[in-house]
Specification:
By secondary structure, the chain is an alpha+beta fold. It contains 3 helices and 7 strands. A hairpin with a 5-residue loop joins β2 and β3. The longest helix has 14 residues. The chain is globular, with a radius of gyration of 16 Å. It comes from Plakobranchus ocellatus.
């Protein structure tokens, strides 16, 4: 991984568009490598949709996106993501709070769960609200998104996340 990171460090300044999505994809791949196909012939990109308007980078205090468990074990996500990295990616990792049987969620870091969301398969449940006008990699679309019932799978492999 150190050699890989060194190569990426040298490549990234000239990459423009690809630096951020490759870094996001690398992070996503590492997180879900035990549950996803690792066939090198199948290329996919990943984003990370963590930030919400209320909390900025304070995801523990600012995440208001909720996850409602479905009978088959998946979750429906509902919330507003203020900054989505690699909005046009194939998949994304995102944070949400699981709603219990009483309609409540757990506050703080313990209440956060990490979810895998197949973006390409459910465009009708993800509304692009506003593209970001930002400095840096303008070629990489980042946006404010409204998630309205998108189906997601709970990942939460890290003990930092609440297992519900």
């Amino acid at each position: 991984r150190l050699y890989q990171m060194a190569q990426f460090y040298l490549y990234e300044p000239s990459a423009g568009l690809y630096g951020c999505p490759l870094a996001m994809t690398n992070g996503a791949a590492r997180t879900i490598e035990v549950s996803m196909c690792r066939d090198p012939q199948t290329f996919w990109t990943s984003g990370q949709w963590m930030t919400e308007k209320r909390g900025g980078s304070d995801v523990a205090g600012g995440t208001e996106t909720v996850a409602v468990e479905q009978p088959e074990g998946t979750y429906k996500l509902y919330g507003y993501k203020w900054f989505s990295s690699a909005t046009d990616a194939d998949i994304t990792l995102t944070l949400a709070r699981i709603v219990d049987d009483h309609g409540s969620t757990v506050k703080g870091t313990r209440g956060l769960s990490l979810f895998y969301l197949d973006v390409k398969g459910q465009k009708s449940n993800i509304q692009l609200v506003k593209l970001k006008n930002k400095l840096g990699t303008r070629q990489l679309p980042t946006a404010e998104l409204l998630i309205e019932g998108a189906t997601a799978h709970k990942v939460s492999l890290n003990s930092k996340f609440h297992d519900g």
